Amino acid sequence: MGIRNPKSKIQNLKSALLLSAVLIPAFACLAPAAPMGGIHLDQIKLPPGFAISVYSDKVRGARSLALSPKGIVYVGTMGSNVYAVVDRNHDGVAEEVHTIASGLNTPNGVAWKDGALYVAEVSRVLRFDGIDERLANPPKPVVVSDAYPGDRHHGWKFIRFGPDGQLYVPEGMPCNICEQANPIYGTITRLVVQSGGQGKPEIVARGIRNTVGFDWHPKTHELWFTDNGRDMLGDDVPPDELNHAPKAGMNFGFPYCHGARIADPEFGKKHACSEFTPPARELGPHVAAIGMRFYTGTMFPETYRNQIFIAEHGSWNRSTPIGYRVSLVRLQGDKAVSYEPFAQGWLQGSEAWGRPVDVQVMPDGALLVSDDRAGAIYRITYGKK
Are 211 and 155 in contact (CB under 8 A)? Predict the structure, then answer.
């Protein structure tokens, strides 16, 4: 064994310290806005006439929301549990929170149909039959499909039933920016779940980096969805997207094109942006636009009906945080004509006490908003509570 040179050791240490000095500030901005403790609804700003209250503050990691006809709100998480939240006396405050599943693999997505709750893990979709009557004694799940990849990077799923009765399930790209040989990556798929056998995914839209929210227009029944733009191109590029897919088979450009006309520096030379469907609306850069719903209630004024509410989870790698709010996109026909904040205040300067994830229109017209940082669900109302 040779004798080590002490000068080399010192030089290596100096190099390591120098590298740390460069990298630590760079990685420091990768974390989401620093958290504040507690719930601070007095900081939430809403348009005149609107109010916000706590529906439940006992839903740890609350993510995607689904509603049964009995008014039970089912809640997915990025952990291992799925919850049922119940407002028995219909006063706008949920008295009960039941854990209906545990030990699952990132059960972010939840959807309800025909007496059963469907739950999406990373690689499979489960069904819990007769769930409304079995909150205290949940049934064992039935596997609906295990045909999805197991990648955790963008592997969490938002699911919903479409007007065609099929279950729509996305598969995000397992990367920040890349191409994949397997055609299921970067798509929205749908499953026929009524047959009783395991469903096989049918791809209905492509070129999607990571959608964690979609809905269908109440009148046209056409699909709209959010998509999170790629990272590491700077604070202001690219935008997140609101997309419109009136027919199956459309391609929205990832990884070659971002927004309407931003060619990717690595992959953009392979395909021009003109080859793909542009966004219906470019959203804020890195706002993490995820859960979205058309407003179908009657509580809010007429100008809000059939318009789109979007939960913006908030930037994780922007030097100045952005998002952490609920935004409103207004439509005229099939055109998205405006984009504005609706509920904001979860972000205070560079600190955030909450991160909106999903929205859900309730039977009385109130709008629920889930928050996975505060472990809460809020209720936004107009006029009398």
Answer: no
Tokens representing 43 are 């900081």
Separation of alpha carbons 273 and 271, rounded Å:
7
In tens, the pLDDT along 46-91 reads 999 999 999 999 999 999 999 999 999 999 999 999 999 999 999 9
Asked whether residue 321 is domain-assigned, the answer is yes
Residue 265 has pLDDT above 70, yes or no: yes
The tokens for 214 are 């979609």
160-161: strand order across its sheet: 160-161, 167-171, 187-191, 202-206, 250-251
pLDDT digits (tens, 9 = 90+) for 92-112: 999 999 999 999 999 999 999
CB contact set of 74 (below 8 Å; sequence gap of 6+): 65, 66, 67, 68, 82, 83, 84, 85, 100, 110, 112, 117, 131
The strand pairing partners of 170, in sequence order, are 188
- Domain of residue 65, residue span: 6-382
Residues 325, 246, 204, CA angle at the centre, nearest 5°? 90
What is the Rg, in whole angstroms, of the alpha carbon atoms belonging to the chain? 22
The answer to whether residue 362 is domain-embedded is: yes
Number of domains in the chain: 1
For residue 1, is it within any domain? Answer: no
pLDDT digit string, tens, across residues 352-381: 999 999 999 999 999 999 999 999 999 999
Sequence letter at residue 204: V
Q: Residue 109's closest CA among 328, 290, 248, 377?
A: 290
The structure tokens 């669900």 sit at 377
Buried b (16+ CB within 10 A) or exposed e, 146-183: ebbeebeebbbbbbbbbeeebbbbbbbbbbebeeeeee
CATH number at residue 39: 2.120.10.30
Give the predicted TM-score (pTM) of the model. 0.91
Residue 195 in any domain: the answer is yes
pLDDT above 90 for 197: no
Reported for 255-261, long-range contacts at CB under 8 A and 24+ positions apart, including other chains, are 255/173, 255/177, 255/178, 255/179, 255/186, 255/209, 255/230, 256/207, 258/229, 258/230, 258/233, 259/229
Alpha-carbon span 259 to 277, nearest angstrom: 10
